[in-house]
Structure formats: C-alpha cells, structure tokens
Amino acid sequence: MVKGRLPRLVILGDRQKCGVAEAIDEFAGFAKGKAETIASCGIENCPDDVLTDCDFAVVFGGDGSIISAARNLSQSSVPVIGVNLGKLGFLAEFSVDELKKSFDDIISGRAHTEKRMMLDCRVFSDGEQKFCSAAINDVFITAGAPFRTIELKILVDAQPLAGCVSDGLIISTPTGSTAYNLSAGGPILAGKMKAMVITPICPHSLSFRPIVINADSRVEVFGVRVNEGTTVSIDGQVSLKLSSDDVVRVERQNCDFLIVNNPKRTQWDTLAEKLRWAEKPKYKKA
C-alpha cells in the first residue's frame, strides 16, 4: 500500500450464486471512504492489470471460489481476504460481520497475512508439454471410466518411490491436506508448512500408506495401465484426460498465494467446529 491514499480493493464473486450479490453490495457500502474499490469482477475474469494495481482481493463465496481466484491471483502476489458464503470455510475465513470488525486492522497491515505454497502441474507427451496449471489444494489422478483400477509408477526426484494399483493418486499441498487427501485417509498438515503429501486412492494393498515429502521435491507419475477415462484434475476444477504415454510432473510452484487470516479463527477451529475433529466421546450419563 502507498502512504497518502486509500487501500485499493478488487472484489471477486459469482453474483449468480445465492447470497453473493447481497453480501458484495453490503460490503461495498461499508467500505466507502475506508478503501477504494477499483473493480468488481467474476471469480476468473478480472484483468491482470487490475490485479497488479490492487492491495487486496476480497473474494465472496465458498472455498471453491477462493481456490479458483487464488490460482489467478498468486502471480500478482495479491493478499486474498476470503468471505465465507459456503459450507466449510477453511480458506474463506471471514463472515461479512467479522470482516467489518477486522477491516481497519487488515487495511492498516496489523492483520496477519499467511503464505501458502502451491503446486505446479505439467503433463508431457513424447517429451512435449501439453498442459500446465497451478494448484492450491491438490493434483489428483482418477481412474475414470470404465472404472477398473489403474496402475501408476511414481518417482520422486528421479528415484522410484512405488508402483500403485488403485483408483488413483492424490498429491496435495498442506492447504489441501484437509480436502480430498483427508477423505482418502491422508494426514492433516498445518497450512503454512512446506511439504507435499502423496496419498493413494483405495490402493489394492494393505501397506501403501500416505507419505509426506519435502516441498522442493519433484514428483513424476507414469501411467503403466490406465482407462479410457483416466483424468488428471487440478483442485477438482481443471482437468485433462490422460493416456499411457503421458507423464504427470508435479513440483512446488515458484510463488505462494497470500491469505489474510481471521484473528478470531484458526485452522484447528474450523476442523473442530465443522468436521468434529478431536471431539470428545459422548459418554453415557451415570
């Protein structure tokens, strides 16, 4: 931010979704005189020159909206303020009321902004790159139709890690450890850690357990046997069908995405409140 001027905001949200337009309008009215709103855009259609000219991006929606926006915002190093209008709110940490109460601290720089690592996924065929995308949560390969198990070969830093006969494979960031990785039995990582998690999806083995590796590692996945519908997906939002000739390469993205933390809420609060993590047993009363 530049001294002597109001902080510049970009507001992002899908106004067609329930409650989003009303929340954006309410916040825009509140922010008048406190900040300058230089643009109000859809989740993925804000021009790059606008993003590089703002101090904060305020994203209204659920975690899916935050993830989609963050992939585009990361190259601009714009801190994201997530306003939760969805269900869980791991990344969309603020309600509209909470944002109003914390707004002065945020725009003055007193609120904590956390760096979260991202993944870079590239797909190669015969040595030629045919796909590239950043990932906030995860890169996963799913078996697809006709839904037979697939066989994958995994290398880490050019060293063979394992063969995997399964329904697929998840490579997750710490941020994504509470998403698909968690549902597949993977570990929960603190969001600001620098690491990757490799988690098989329903492996045909009792001994293939998830593994946490260094963030600077390079993971390469080869399709030994795949289905016609086998697909690589980025955050469950961007996807590409794979053939047995394709190589999926995943490594740390060269930039992080920035998220403004809600001082009244932690990652562990959301786990406990929304997913009932570490909840005490319900003992029978004597």
Write the layout of secondary structure elements.
Layout: E1 8-13, H1 20-31, E2 36-41, H2 48-51, E3 56-61, H3 63-73, E4 80-84, H4 96-107, E5 113-116, E6 119-125, E7 128-135, E8 138-142, E9 150-156, E10 159-166, E11 168-172, H5 180-183, E12 195-201, E13 211-214, E14 219-225, E15 231-234, E16 238-241, E17 246-252, E18 257-260, H6 267-275
Parallel strand pairs: 1-2, 1-3, 3-4
Antiparallel strand pairs: 5-18, 6-7, 6-17, 8-11, 8-15, 9-10, 9-14, 11-12, 12-13, 14-17, 15-16
Plain-language structure description:
The chain is of the alpha+beta class and 286 residues long. 18% of the residues lie in helices and 36% in strands. The strands form four sheets. Strands 7-6-17-14-9-10 form a six-stranded antiparallel beta sheet, with no helix packed on it. Strands 13-12-11-8-15-16 form a six-stranded antiparallel beta sheet, with no helix packed on it. Strands 2-1-3-4 form a four-stranded parallel beta sheet, sandwiched between helices. It is globular. It starts with 7 loop residues before the first strand and ends in an 11-residue tail after the last helix.
